[in-house]
From TrEMBL:
Residues 20-214 form the Aminoglycoside phosphotransferase domain. Transmembrane segments: none annotated. SUPFAM superfamilies: Protein kinase-like (PK-like) (SSF56112). This is Aminoglycoside phosphotransferase domain-containing protein. InterPro entries: Aminoglycoside_PTrfase, Kinase-like_dom_sf. It holds the Pfam family APH. It comes from the Bacteria. It comes from Devosia geojensis.
Amino acid sequence: MRELGRLIGRGKEAEVHEEGEHALKLYRSADRKLAAFREATVLAALEDAGVAAPKVFGIENRQGRWGVLMERVRGPAWAEKMRADERTIEPCLKAMARLHVDIHGRTAAALPRQRARLTRDIARTPLLGEPLRRRLLDGLAERPDGDRLCHGDFHPLNILGELEAPTVVDWLDASLGVPAADACRSYMLLARGWPDLADAYADAYARTAGIGRSEIDGWLPFVAAARLAEDVPEETEALVAMAERV
């Protein structure tokens, strides 16, 4: 059995191992074959679109688990820079906003639709009462269904390298949709892990994109309600409160 290389990264659903000049993102659960193939497909589409994402080289099964063999990205996550020196926080947030807006200026083939994903997750979570669920689904149906590239998990842990030449990782949740909704998802994730930075980032994104902050905030009930389907019990109370703002 082929041995795994040195562990160089760890997340909720997968871990990343050194594989020579490449990296192997290996899902923790043995039943994630579909996720591995889906992520590889997304990365291939992003390469065609010229997006700052790792190049993909194939799918592998190691020790009964499925993984994606991809380009190994050098350099620390931006979260590490920001934690190590608070003077880097402001330039990192501004660079994040520029990078996010650049991503949103692109599109790619063969990606799911953002609004369809939000609808599915709101419909399937058992953590919403039916009257609130119906209000959310009705409101979401009236929202635009965009065609811009959206990352779905854009935050400082998923951006690596230098400010001038970053690479964005973890594209499994990528979709085609509305940029403001993707920025709202980033705001919500930051509000949980980096509460002091959430508003600063949303404001920086709005300025860079040339939109009003209200365009981002208007998506919050829908993005928060969909997040309930991701099994994050420590966030349930806060997410339901956000969803009730619809």
